[in-house]
Automatic annotation (TrEMBL):
This protein's UniProt keywords: Amino-acid biosynthesis, Hydrolase, Magnesium, Metal-binding, Methionine biosynthesis
Protein name from the UniProt record: Enolase-phosphatase E1
GO MF, one example: acireductone synthase activity
Cofactor: Mg(2+)
Length: 237
């Protein structure tokens, strides 16, 4: 067991809290057939209008491109697992509805909720930094096989309110928003490049090398690497 001290615990979602298949299979399969109908049924929702306009400009589609062409771009991005902000925004809205309707339930790795609860009970503050939109994050924590765990988290960050996950300025922005210095934050992620960016900003970093996951055999370099949260303790200084 490795003992860490921190004020904030910041966690990634996919590959860290949930199996990658929870996102790539369950959530992506849910979103795929609903993207077109969602765009067409929300023609005046400014969030949807802005997302569609960003998709057009990022993909080089003309203003006249119809929903079918936009959905084709979105499916291509999903197939390539490109976590592009307007796609994540639309997915988040669809998942929010799916969780509210009872169609979706999040399944965490078994070590996750006991660790989150124990850190929260110890007095640590918990936050999320994921490519999934804040709306999607909150919805996915509201209906899980361990119940509603939204109250464990005091802050949520995504690529819109913080920035890309593999770039240092995103971590600088999050630390500022949390009113914390980098060394007071410990970040858990399965992606070494994300840990590198956080470490550049002075954060403590822990890699999740979960067996069977895409980064289960990755080289975590100088980052502490664990297979499950039970291998570390985090306490207040
Ligand atoms: C309901 S949030 C789903 C998470 C998601 O969409 C995603 O892309 C996960 O990426 P992460 O940065 O958490 O690895
Ligand atoms: Mg991840």
């Amino acid at each position: 067991m490795t003992a860490l001290t921190a004020r904030w615990v910041v966690v990634d979602i996919e590959g860290t809290l949930t199996p990658t298949s929870q996102v790539h299979v369950v959530l992506y399969d849910y979103a795929r057939p609903r993207l077109g109908p969602w765009i067409d049924s929300h023609p005046r929702d400014p969030i949807v209008v802005d997302a569609v306009s960003a998709i057009r400009s990022l993909s080089g589609l003309p203003d006249s491109a119809n929903t079918e062409a936009i959905v084709e771009v979105l499916h291509g991005w999903m197939d390539a697992d490109q976590k592009i902000a307007p796609l994540k925004t639309l997915q988040g809205l669809i998942w929010q509805r799916g969780y509210a309707d009872g169609d979706l339930v999040t399944e965490f790795f078994p070590d996750v909720v006991p660790a989150l609860r124990s850190w929260h009970d110890t007095g640590l503050d918990l936050a999320v930094f994921s490519s999934g939109s804040v709306a999607g994050q909150v919805a996915s924590f509201s209906r899980t096989t361990d119940g509603d765990v939204t109250s464990l988290f005091s802050a949520h960050f995504d690529t819109v309110n913080a920035g890309p996950k593999r770039e240092r300025p995103s971590y600088t922005a999050i630390a500022a928003a949390l009113n914390a210095a980098g060394p007071q934050i410990v970040f858990f992620s399965d992606v070494p490049a994300e840990l590198d960016a956080a470490a550049e900003d002075g954060w403590q970093t822990v890699g999740l090398a979960r067996p069977g996951e895409p980064f289960g055999d990755a080289d975590f370099g100088t980052h502490l690497a664990i297979k499950a949260f039970a291998e570390v303790s985090v306490d207040l200084p």
